[in-house]
Amino acid sequence: MLQSQSTNNMKVSLIKAFSDNYIWAISSDLGNKMALVDPGDAKVCIEFIEQQQLQLSTILITHHHPDHIGGIKQLLSYCQDRQWPVTVYGPENENIPHCDVALNESHRVNLPDLGLEFEVIDLPGHTLGHIAYLSEDNLFCGDTLFSGGCGRLFEGTPEQMLNSLEKLSALSERTHVYCAHEYTQANLNFALTVEPSNAELVHYYNQVLQKREQKIATIPSSIMLEKKINPFLRCATSSIMTSASEFSGDKVTDKLQAFTIIRGWKDNF
Known about the structure:
Layout: E1 2-7, E2 10-17, E3 21-28, E4 33-37, H1 42-52, E5 55-60, H2 66-69, H3 72-81, E6 87-91, E7 101-103, E8 108-111, E9 116-122, E10 131-135, E11 138-142, E12 145-146, E13 149-150, H4 158-169, E14 176-179, H5 184-194, H6 199-213, E15 221-222, H7 223-229, H8 238-248, H9 255-267
Helix pairs in contact: 1-3, 5-6, 8-9
C-alpha cells in the first residue's frame, strides 16, 4: 500500500485505492499532522493514518468526481470522534461536499502544522473547476496531467485543457508530478502509436514495463520527463503534428488542432 518520497520538509506517501487510484498523504518533520489529497476511499486512508500514527488535519480536493471525494464524509466522522479539527479545501467552481475553503488561482493554502504552503492553479478541462496544488516543486494535479497522458474532457474544451497543460509544462522541470491514477503503461502504449520514433519515450516505456511487472508505482513523474515523452505536452512539435495529420487525413498546422485530434484519437484507442 505504502511508498514514500521526501523533498525538503515534505514527505509524500502513496495510498492505493480502488483499481488504479492514488491518494496522496502529505506529512512533515514538524509533528504528526497530515493532509490527504483526493481521498476517494476512507477505509484505506484510515488504515494508513493508524499504521503511521498520524493525525489528519487537512483534506485537499482537486475536482468533484466520486473517486476523489467519496471518502470525505467518513473521514470527517472518524476525525470528529477523536476531536481532531479538519479543514477541507476544494475548487470554488465545483460542488465539493463539506468544503470549508473554496479556492481559485488567486489563493494560497497555508498549513502551519505542516510548515507548508501551496499555490493553487486553475486547470479547467477534465472538469470545469479542476485545480491543482503546488508546493516545494511538488505538484498534485488530480486528473489533468498523467504520466504519458492527460485527463478526458468530461466538461471542458480542448482549448481549455491545452491551456491548462501548457500552464503545467511551464513549471520548473524539477517539479514532481503526483497525479491520481496509475495509467502510465496504457498511456505509453498510445504515445508510442503517436510518436514511435521518440527514443526517450521508448526508453521510458521499457522502464515502466519493468516497474509494473514488479507492481511498483510509476508516479511521481516529473515535468522534465513529461515534456520529453507526453504527446499532449508536445503538440507544437512537428512529429506530433505529422502524426495527427496522418490520422485525421487533414493537414495539421497548429498545436490546438493537433491536441484536439490526438485527444479524440486517445478516447477511442
